[in-house]
Amino acid sequence: TLPPDCPPDVEQLGRSTWTFLHTMAAYYPEVPSYAQQRSMKTFLSTFSEFYPCNFCAEHLREEMKSKPPKVESRWALGKWLCEMHNIVNEKLGKNIFDCSKIDERWKDGPKDGRCD
Ligand code: FAD
């Protein structure tokens, strides 16, 4: 890893961004209003336009064409994002994440309380 005062590389940017995106999805409303659903769609579309890794953003936009964001509930958004991340994981040869564990990983922490 780079010294902490260097500009982020693709890996560090990715880690920070996934942290933000999964945490945002974990706290998205259980029952979002139509306005909130529209805002989230706009956000994700804008995000995929400006994400500052060109080949990452291009790949994301391509995937979003056949798998548009699911924004109708907290659960749906979290699952969609987990699946998007898994597509990238697969492409990079990383482990596939179990999407039933997103709340434990990004919101509630493990049951043994070690993150409390
Ligand atoms: P990361 O993949 O950054 O994951 C961070 C943590 O998230 C993991 O430790 C794990 O606890 C958790 N996690 C893993 N998978 C999931 C999941 N499916 N759902 C929920 N939580 C999960 N890099 C490239 O080289 N090429 C690309 O095309 C590319 N595209 C990207 C597109 C986007 C939108 C983003 C945000 C990043 C992209 N990256 C890309 C970066 C890449 O995904 C990783 O972030 C980077 O390689 C660092 O990986 P990591 O092993 O630290 O874990």
Summarize the structure.
By secondary structure, the protein is mainly α. The chain contains five helices and no strands. Flavin-adenine dinucleotide binds at residues 10-11, 14-15, 17-18, 22, 51, 55-56, 59-60, 82, 85-86, 88-89, 92, 94, 97, 102, 105.
Structural summary, described in words:
It is a single chain. With 116 residues, the chain is mainly alpha-helical. The chain has a single domain, classed as Four Helix Bundle (Hemerythrin (Met), subunit A) (Up-down Bundle), CATH 1.20.120.310. Helix content is 63%, strand content 0%. It is built from five helices and no strands. The chain has helices spanning 10-26, 34-50, 54-66, 74-92, 102-108. The longest helix has 19 residues, at 74-92. It is globular. The two termini are 27 Å apart. Residues 10-11, 14-15, 17-18, 22, 51, 55-56, 59-60, 82, 85-86, 88-89, 92, 94, 97, 102, 105 line the site of flavin-adenine dinucleotide.
